[in-house]
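Regression test case RT-17, inverse folding.

Input:
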């Protein structure tokens, strides 16, 4: 069976420009054809590509709904006889072996894992009150943090050392024996604690510095932030909670699984299930029954006020309806989720690799999914991607 990549885009200029960026990267790295599926009448600017399939989408849909209509209905609109790899327009191919993804296909479909589990994703897929409550608490924290944050005093030219120090902290997480040894050294070092030959901490001023550049990072004044915000902070566990004792930075809810069961009579039996990410997936003619249901259920949710206009909630429902919750997923290297805000994700630019705190495994991605902070020139990951062109 022949292989083919496919993108879907619809509507706004910014989305088509994102496609052009990612399309250019992929074209230089694949020997396989690339199709762009679109509704050409909706697009603000022309698509600069020769292999374009245009489908007229229902006029009642907005551009976002039309894109999802095309994405979940790919198998209905594309030529037969191919094994396809779907890519979101913000998935950037940077490896030298991107065509190898087709070898990872396991019928009936093969998706990559998301960065979170079902109950962590829930409030982003449905219209419940949970997200507003969490955002209110996060805003309280942020306001207090901004008022007490001394890091605004750090010279900009020292920011690279600040990032380096934060990376060291991330790499130490989960390495309990190393943390214990550093803690003992910290207890007996006063007033200056030397982390290594470069970085040192003044226990009186609560300031991290580097021998070459000086001040790098002020310690976060957690107790003062807690007092000002009305939140609580446990100095031993380093955990934040809201006024009701619920975790501040690990919010979860069960509304998505509840709504899925009510609408589709499908029970998701694990709220901690690692759900699939819709940004990259493989399919062929064996996939049509699965994709038909995903498409049908996604369209059905457009007019259900409980569900946000997304395709991942209905993907979860479809997976469990077919009993595919343990089906093999793609390696993270095929859809490396570059989360700008994650404290767990560690970027190693010299090795062109990523790792996660508490996990020694490093992944050199073939494709990087930049699902936010696109074109952020202050982000080292973005600057590294641009340099790969």
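Golden output:
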């Amino acid at each position: 069976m022949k292989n083919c990549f496919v993108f879907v885009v619809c509507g706004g200029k910014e989305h088509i420009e994102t496609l052009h960026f990612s399309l250019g990267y992929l074209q230089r790295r694949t020997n396989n054809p690339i199709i762009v599926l679109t509704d050409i009448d909706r697009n603000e600017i022309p698509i600069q590509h020769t292999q374009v399939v245009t489908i007229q989408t229902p006029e009642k849909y907005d551009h976002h709904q039309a894109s999802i209509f095309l994405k979940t209905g790919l198998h209905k609109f594309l030529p037969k006889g191919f094994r396809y790899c779907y890519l979101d327009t913000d998935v950037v191919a940077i490896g030298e072996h991107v065509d190898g993804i087709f070898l990872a296909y396991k019928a009936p479909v093969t998706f990559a894992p998301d960065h979170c589990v079902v109950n962590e994703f829930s409030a982003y897929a449905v219209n419940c009150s949970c997200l507003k409550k969490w955002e209110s608490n996060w805003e309280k924290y942020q306001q207090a943090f901004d008022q007490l944050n001394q890091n605004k005093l750090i010279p900009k030219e020292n920011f690279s050392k600040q990032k380096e120090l934060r990376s060291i902290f991330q790499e130490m997480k989960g390495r309990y024996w190393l943390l214990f040894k550093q803690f003992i050294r910290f207890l007996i070092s006063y007033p200056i604690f030397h982390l290594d030959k470069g970085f040192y901490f003044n226990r009186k001023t609560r300031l991290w510095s580097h021998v070459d550049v000086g001040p790098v990072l002020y310690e976060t004044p957690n107790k003062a932030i807690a007092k000002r915000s009305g939140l609580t902070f446990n100095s031993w566990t380093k955990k934040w909670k809201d006024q009701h004792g619920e975790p501040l930075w690990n919010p979860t809810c069960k509304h998505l699984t509840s709504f899925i069961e009510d609408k589709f009579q499908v029970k998701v039996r694990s709220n901690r299930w690692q759900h699939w990410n819709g940004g990259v997936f493989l399919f062929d003619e064996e996939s049509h029954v699965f994709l038909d249901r995903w498409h049908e259920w996604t369209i059905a949710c457009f007019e259900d006020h409980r569900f946000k206009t997304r395709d991942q909630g209905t993907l979860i429902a479809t997976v469990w309806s077919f009993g595919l919750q343990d089906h093999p997923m793609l390696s993270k290297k095929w859809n490396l989720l570059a989360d700008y805000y994650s404290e767990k994700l560690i970027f190693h630019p010299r090795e062109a690799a990523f790792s996660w705190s508490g996990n020694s495994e490093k992944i050199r991605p073939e494709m990087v999914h930049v699902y936010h902070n696109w074109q952020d020139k202050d982000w080292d990951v973005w600057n590294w991607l641009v340099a790969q062109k």
